[in-house]
Specification:
By secondary structure, this protein is an all-alpha fold. 72% of the residues lie in helices and 0% in strands. The relative contact order is 0.23.
Length: 310
C-alpha cells in the first residue's frame, strides 16, 4: 500500500479522550479503510478468476496498472497537484515501483493455485519482515519483546505454508517471495515519505508499472473473446486505483496507529470471496496459522503504540 498522508493527530497522544469531531472523523476513516480493504480483496479475487479463465497473470498486472493510472490521472495531475512528478530521489522511486510490481506479479501467479485466505495470511507476514529489515536499513532495531512477536508471527506463516509436510502447494513460496518484496517496498515507502508526498509516490508507482509491463504485453496478450473478460480487466485497475485513493482519504482523517489494526479484517473479506466465488474454505491449519499471524501483528502494533506514546 502506498504511504498515506500523515494526519496531524498522529503526533499527539492517541490515548487522550477524542473530541466528538475527532471520533466522527475516525469513524469515517475506519469506513474508508474498510472500503479500501474490500477493493483490494475484490482485486485479488478478480485476478484469480481471470487466471482460471486462461488470462495470463502478466496481462492482468498490466491492466491493473494501466487502468489505475488513467483513473488516478483525473484526480492527480498537473492542474490539481502542480509538481506532482517532482522527486528528489528518482532512483528510489523507481526501485520502490519495481518492488511493488514484483510483489503484484508473484501474488497474481500464486493466486492461480492458492486460496485467497492462504495468500493473504502469508502477506500478513509483511509487518514482521519490515520490523526485521528496519534495523539494518532504517536503524530502527526491534527490542526483545518485538523479536519474540516476530518469531511467533513467522511460526504462524510456517503453520499456513507447512513446508515439507505436503500440506501446501509450492506456489506458497511465490507468495512468500511476494511478501518479501512488499516488505522492501514498505521500507522504501518510509524512506521516501521524508522527501516526497504520498501523491507523488502513488503516481510514480502507476507510471513505472505501465512503463515496465507494456514491453512484455505483446508476448502474453490474449484477445478476450467475451465482454465480461474486458470488463473484469478494467475492474482490476479500478479496484487497485480506487482502493489506494480510499486509503489516502482514510489516513487524512485519522492517524495510522488507529487504522492499522483494521488491516487484518481483510482476512474476512478474503474468506467470504473465496467461499462464495470459488467455493473454497481454508483448512483448520490455515485458520490457526492466520490467527497466530494476526495476533502477533496486533501485538507488534501495540508495542509500536507504546513506543510512540512513551
Amino acid at each position: 500500500m502506498d504511504e498515506p498522508a500523515r494526519h496531524p493527530a498522529s503526533s499527539g497522544n492517541l490515548d487522550a479522550p477524542a473530541s466528538p469531531e475527532e471520533r466522527r472523523s475516525r469513524l469515517i476513516a475506519i469506513a474508508l479503510m474498510s472500503g479500501a480493504l474490500a477493493c483490494f480483496s475484490c482485486l485479488d479475487a478478480t485476478a484469480k478468476w481471470l487466471a482460471s479463465q486462461g488470462v495470463d497473470p502478466l496481462q492482468t498486472v498490466w491492466a491493473r496498472y494501466t487502468v489505475s493510472v488513467v483513473l488516478v490521472s483525473f484526480f492527480v495531475n498537473h492542474w490539481t497537484s502542480p509538481g506532482v512528478l517532482r522527486t528528489s530521489r528518482p532512483v528510489l522511486q523507481v526501485a520502490r515501483s519495481i518492488l511493488l510490481m514484483a510483489s503484484t506479479i508473484l501474488n497474481f501467479i500464486a493466486l492461480q493455485y492458492l486460496q485467497l485466505a492462504e495468500t493473504i495470511s502469508i502477506l500478513f507476514a509483511t509487518p514482521f519482515l519490515v520490523a526485521l529489515l528496519a534495523g539494518p536499513i532504517l536503524g530502527e532495531w526491534a527490542g526483545p519483546r518485538r523479536m519474540i512477536a516476530i518469531g511467533v508471527g513467522f511460526l504462524g506463516v510456517l503453520v499456513v505454508t507447512r513446508p515439507g509436510f505436503g500440506g501446501m502447494h509450492p506456489a506458497a513460496f511465490l507468495s512468500v517471495a511476494g511478501a518479501i518484496c512488499y516488505a522492501l517496498y514498505g521500507i522504501s515507502t518510509r524512506l521516501l515519505a521524508a522527501t516526497d508526498s504520498s501523491r507523488t509516490t502513488m503516481v510514480y508507482s502507476g507510471l513505472a508499472g505501465v512503463a515496465l509491463m507494456t514491453p512484455i504485453l505483446p508476448f502474453v496478450w490474449q484477445m478476450p473473446d467475451e465482454p465480461l473478460i474486458w470488463f473484469l480487466l478494467c475492474a482490476v485497475g479500478f479496484y487497485g486505483g480506487f482502493g489506494h485513493w480510499l486509503l489516502i482519504l482514510a489516513h487524512a482523517r485519522a492517524p495510522a496507529p488507529i487504522l492499522a489494526p483494521f488491516i487484518y479484517s481483510q482476512l474476512l473479506w478474503m474468506l467470504l470471496l473465496g467461499y462464495f466465488v470459488f467455493g473454497d474454505w481454508p483448512d483448520p491449519w490455515t485458520l490457526v496459522g492466520a490467527s497466530i499471524v494476526i495476533a502477533s501483528g496486533l501485538y507488534l502494533l501495540y508495542r509500536e503504540r507504546l513506543r510512540r506514546t512513551g
